[in-house]
Amino acid sequence: GAGVSQTPSNKVTEKGKYVELRCDPISGHTALYWYRQSLGQGPEFLIYFQGTGAADDSGLPNDRFFAVRPEGSVSTLKIQRTERGDSAVYLCASSVTGRTSGSTDTQYFGPGTRLTVL
Amino acid sequence: AQRVTQPEKLLSVFKGAPVELKCNYSYSGSPELFWYVQYSRQRLQLLLRHISRESIKGFTADLNKGETSFHLKKPFAQEEDSAMYYCALRNRDDKIIFGKGTRLHILP
Question: Are A109 and B44 an interchain contact pair (Cβ–Cβ within 8 Å)?
């Protein structure tokens, strides 16, 4: 079946601009995660959705970053006033149930969006 | 501090030789540990997790709580094992913390 998809695959923008990154999770997965992977680093957690609500946004670096998932499926990560330090690969993952008690849910990752801020 | 350390950025191994990718973690409690793999031009995917005690593609990893390690091993490397490998832990808040990764390069 179809996996997690992310669009665009590449995004080049100028410092100060606004960008939106989209994630389409696997159909039926209630949990959705965003990660950021900078060059030479592993993925770093940004935000976790359970259904429509952001259950944990503790990884968002500052208030320029915001994410939504209005219908509990597609999610959009929004970055305002982009800075050069925002350049990274942004990964999305989804899982069937997410952080339920005793869950050992597997997270399935998308291909990522490579964001370059000039 | 909760941390995953992969000391090697790059590991080159001859085909047929044993492979060991090192991973150490820092966590007060009982974490759940994973290895993820990313092959060239493919997405990140789960390779194995310690609670399953499974062998995937010939790889195994044993959790050593005394040494706080979760090294990934394979007795005989194959060319298709060349990839980026990430060790990760899931903490009690269900966050997954990744190491920086080790690039495994299998030499012919």
Answer: yes
Cβ–Cβ of B43/A104 closer than 8 Å? no
Q: Given an 8 Å threshold on Cβ–Cβ distance, is B46 in contact with A3?
A: no
CB contact under 8 A, B44 and A106: no
Kindly report, residue by residue over A17-34, the tens digit of the pLDDT. Answer: 999 999 999 999 999 999
Q: How far is CA B35 from CA A5, B41, B52, B60, B99, in A?
A: 22, 18, 12, 10, 10
Residues of chain B whose C-beta is under 8 A from some C-beta in A? 4, 9, 32, 43-46, 49, 51, 86, 88, 93-101
Please calculate the CA angle B8-A36-B55 and round it to the nearest 5 degrees: 50
Q: Hey, which residues does A13 pair with through a beta bridge?
A: A117
pLDDT tens digit sequence for A61-115: 999 999 999 999 999 999 999 999 999 999 999 998 776 655 567 889 999 999 9
Residues 6 or more apart in contact with residue B51 via CB below 8 angstroms: A104, B32
